[in-house]
Design brief:
Layout: H1 26-37, H2 50-71, H3 79-96, H4 102-115
Length: 119
């Protein structure tokens, strides 16, 4: 088996797995983990200040809203809007440190450009 990290791992840093969708806001994440796995969650982000958690939640809610907007756009007639949405999602994912979720965005960008014959 081979495991590849999406980011550098510091010496002594705990390596964990996600039991939920990686981009969930904190309250939804806590509820999901409690209801489905029966434990209370306390990652470093959730233990941070209320302001930092609220800002993160706002970015994650924005990502969810952008994904809904993306689903409503047409591949062929709204390519410029799709690119704009995907670029904003990628920027927010970078800020949130959610690099694993960018792969799908890159695929959708490639498909969008292919739809308009922009190799």
């Amino acid at each position: 088996m081979e495991v590849i990290a999406y980011r550098d791992i510091h010496i002594g840093e705990e390596i964990t797995i996600s039991y939920s969708y990686l981009g969930m806001p904190s309250a939804a994440r806590r509820k999901f983990l409690h209801d489905n796995w029966g434990f209370e969650f306390s990652c470093p982000l959730c233990r941070d200040s209320e302001v930092i958690v609220a800002n993160s939640d706002n970015r994650r809610e924005r990502i969810l809203e952008l994904r809904r907007q993306l689903a409503r756009t047409s591949h062929s007639t709204e390519s410029a809007r799709r690119v704009e949405i995907l670029q904003e999602i990628i920027t927010l994912l970078d800020v949130e440190g959610l690099s694993p979720l960018k792969a799908n965005c890159f695929q959708l960008l490639a498909e969008t450009y292919l739809d308009i014959n922009d190799i």
